[in-house]
UniProtKB/TrEMBL annotation:
Mur ligase C-terminal domain boundaries: 299-379
Residue span(s) of domain Mur ligase central: 96-275
Compartments, record wording: Cytoplasm
Protein family (similarity comment): Belongs to the MurCDEF family. MurF subfamily.
Keywords: ATP-binding, Cell cycle, Cell division, Cell shape, Cell wall biogenesis/degradation, Cytoplasm, Ligase, Nucleotide-binding, Peptidoglycan synthesis
Pathway as given in its UniProt record: Cell wall biogenesis; peptidoglycan biosynthesis
Main location: cytoplasm
Protein name: UDP-N-acetylmuramoyl-tripeptide--D-alanyl-D-alanine ligase
Gene3D superfamilies: Mur ligase, C-terminal domain, Mur-like, catalytic domain, MurE/MurF, N-terminal domain
Catalytic activity: D-alanyl-D-alanine + UDP-N-acetyl-alpha-D-muramoyl-L-alanyl-gamma-D-glutamyl-meso-2,6-diaminopimelate + ATP = UDP-N-acetyl-alpha-D-muramoyl-L-alanyl-gamma-D-glutamyl-meso-2,6-diaminopimeloyl-D-alanyl-D-alanine + ADP + phosphate + H(+)
Organism: Flagellimonas yonaguniensis
Residues the record lists as binding ATP: G97, S98, N99, G100, K101, T102, T103
Top-level class of the enzyme under EC nomenclature: ligase
């Protein structure tokens, strides 16, 4: 079957499924493989549950015309996504970065959808599978698609750009994330900048934070760009007003009061505002979109529970975002400040050094009570309460309840520190 024929089939069956537990009637099932599973073995089950066709890459599983045999299912999914992307008229905005991608993507979508028909990456489906699935969710009437791109090693963003072929791009920042794969902060910069490299090579448009020296330097000679800054009047000026605890800012004399905690969310808002201006969205609509956005999924959420004012930021963590969260929390107005922070993953051979640095940084901020959770934090040299696992923390808190007040909860996704909400007393 040619790609044109497969795409025609897709236009008749526009739902893509890769998990037999989520099969919908008349979908296309792509039998992807993983380290511990072979999707081909589940293809018949997908058809039994209602899939119209199953795309497979092992001939022994083809027992009827409803099985479509290809060379490689993942490559076919990616090629179909690129074909569909070129079939549709939607413009693509791609964004990557070490921190803030998903929040920034949601803010951009909130702003641009005020005027245009948009789609955006669902959740954080931003990898070699998620990006194709996002592209395949583009409809005939979609005008702009906001595509988040994640990476944990070099050449991954380059590959995603070749699939998505973005018209616009933005990098949130360069931080100490996925050092195990990138090798160093220099590797992070090189890997994330593959988005710039693609856009420049194809003469596409770039948005930038002109207060970020790395971005400014890398784009110094490029003309198809628009940036924001708090001080450089060669760029679009946006003023940071403060956090109490939510970010407030001013643009063109208009104050915008967000529902986002932490100064680290200020540039995320600025990026959305900048793109709103580029796409000629009225400032009052930009303001409405930014002020109406509420973070979800354990991302810098403000909660009140049982006498605690909680900053729940348990979706992800790396040294850069952890330091920013601690610094922001230290500025909050509260009589009792308690932090519970969990291990940061994918740091490779820098893990011990980076966890110790965070423990030392927390010491400087003079919090009232500090609890470190996870094997890496447990090995740090500090006087803080340390626990090798969540179970150990829970046993301690059952006997030693936290004092009421402000509470920061932050850690990598694998630590699942949102479970703390269930044991507060």
């Amino acid at each position: 079957m040619t790609m044109e024929e497969l795409h025609a089939l897709f236009l008749e069956h526009t739902t893509i499924c890769t998990d037999t537990r989520k099969i919908t009637e008349n979908c296309l099932f792509f039998a992807l493989k993983g380290p511990n599973f072979n999707g081909n073995a589940f293809a018949q089950e997908a058809l039994n549950k209602g899939a119209a066709y199953a795309i497979i890459d092992e001939v022994e599983f083809k027992t009827s015309d409803r099985f479509i045999l290809c060379k490689d299912v993942l490559e076919t999914l990616q090629e179909l996504a690129s074909h569909h992307r070129n079939h549709c008229k939607a413009k693509i905005i791609s964004l990557t970065g070490s921190n803030g991608k998903t929040t920034t993507k949601e803010l951009i979508n909130a702003v641009i959808s005020k005027k245009y028909k948009t789609i955006a990456t669902y959740g954080n489906l931003n990898n070699h599978i998620g990006v194709p699935l996002t592209l395949l969710s583009i409809k005939e009437n979609t005008e702009i698609a906001i595509v988040e791109m994640g990476a944990n090693h070099k050449k991954e963003i380059e590959s995603l750009c070749n699939i998505a072929q973005p018209d616009f791009g933005y990098i949130t920042n360069f931080g100490k994330a996925h050092l195990e794969g990138f090798g160093s902060i220099e590797g992070v910069i090189q890997g994330k900048s593959e988005l710039y490299d693609y856009l420049i090579a194809h003469n596409k448009y770039v948005f930038l934070n002109a207060d970020d020296g790395i971005q400014k330097e890398k784009l110094a000679g490029y003309t198809k760009k628009m940036g924001f800054s708090t001080s450089n009047h060669h760029y679009y000026n946006i003023t940071f007003l403060g956090v109490a605890p939510y970010v407030s800012l001013e643009v063109e004399g208009v104050q915008i009061n967000t529902q986002l905690v932490g100064k680290y969310n200020f540039p995320n808002c600025c990026a959305a505002i900048l793109m709103g201006k580029y796409f000629n969205i009225p400032l009052e609509d930009i303001k409405s979109a930014i002020e109406g956005y509420q973070p979800q999924n354990n991302r810098s959420q403000i909660l009140s529970k049982d006498g605690f004012d909680i900053v729940l930021d348990a979706y992800n963590a790396n040294p850069t975002s952890m330091k920013a969260a601690l610094e922001n929390f230290s500025l909050m107005d509260a009589n009792q400040k308690t932090i519970i922070i969990g291990d940061m993953f994918e740091l490779g051979n820098t893990a011990a050094e980076e966890h110790q640095a965070i423990a030392d940084f927390a010491k400087q901020l003079n919090f009232d009570d500090v609890h470190l959770v996870g094997e890496n934090f447990f090995r740090t040299k500090t006087s803080f309460h340390k626990f090798p696992s969540f179970v150990d923390l829970k046993e301690y808190l059952d006997k030693n309840p936290l004092k009421k007040g402000a509470l920061l909860i932050k850690g990598s996704r694998g630590m699942a520190l949102e479970r703390i909400l269930d044991i507060l007393k």
